[in-house]
Amino acid sequence: MKRAFIIFKAVTRNWLRSKAGLFFSIMFPVLLLIVFGAIFSGGGTGKSTLFVQNLDIETDGQPSQLSTAFVEALNSTETFAIQDVPMDKDAKTYAREALGPLGGNIRILVISEGFQDDMLNGTLKVRIGISFNTTLTMYRMFNSSMTPENRTIAEAGIAQMGHYNENLTGRNTTLTLIFDQSDQSASVIENIVMNVASAFNYGLIGATTVIEFQRESVVGKHFGMVDFYLPGIIAAFIMTNGIIALTSNTTEFKRRGIIKRLSITPLTKFDWIIGNVLSQTLLSLLLTAIMIMVGWIVFNLQVIPDALSIIFIFLGSIMFSGIGMVLGGLVKDVEAASAIGNAIAFPMMFLSGTYFPIDFAPSYIQAISKVLPLTYFSDGLRYALIYKYNEGVFTNMAVVSVLAVVFIILGSVVTRWKEK
Question: pTM for this structure?
């Protein structure tokens, strides 16, 4: 074990002397955390530009009262930065010119001509229909106790109301939403506009809300969005450092003949593997500590790692270091090692649900996710740091521990210590 510690110190010193290694192992993950935090911490306006063209104009040239009220209702959600589109302009052309070549996605809402009249007529028909159905129901319930004279009067009134309801014209008004097909936020914005329209419609017919929602969190402590992204970022970069860095370093040592020279010393292959794994594990713990400290300082993170999460990070680092040693033992060319490492690490990063859930992904993607080591590492780390769900931590820890042992053994098998 003493000789493995010698390898550990030598590999760690070599990493500390590499400016590129320091940047991609420590600074790049920290920069990514800052970018994620800046986007999801809620520090900006959080508003999406929505161009609104109101074609419902009254005789005095001003927008109708109901269409104006609807735009104000949209504005009250504090979701949109609304920009008016003149009615004599083509909405698409106007929005494109207003945004400019670097302005972002085009999102347009067109309020059709006759919006107010159609809303009023539709509202009147709905209200009369409700009154008619209510009166008819009440008559059927109590007509047996009515006098013949009152029954005749009631039947005449119901017939007249029904005739008026059948002949009353009620047209649905139209709102047109125009989006860029590549805009991934389009469905969210559409849902917000539809919810505002439904609430606006209910208000006109006098309906009141009879169902109320209460929101509770599955975690007792209040966490921000950055807290929930942190475990995934830590897991992803522990994975990339273990796979890409170790694979590249091992092949570079082979190219320079370092492993060949070490093989004639008292050092063993086991010492070499354990030393590299310990060095990478130290890097993983250091990376985790730096990212959490930066998060505390910049974004006021609430995540506090405990002993269980540190043990889990230790095991995860061993697992990915083992994968790196396996690839380093199989690949001889430095350029090929970098390409293979990236080809394995980056698809795993996006297919394992590390940054975003894959619940709505195709079934074959979800099946692939179940066999990726990063899935169990990121899930377990999230359970340990955020949810404090020990059962989930131990289940994922068992999988990670088994894989760590398997890859370390496999790495020792494929590593050629005595060069021919």
Answer: 0.69
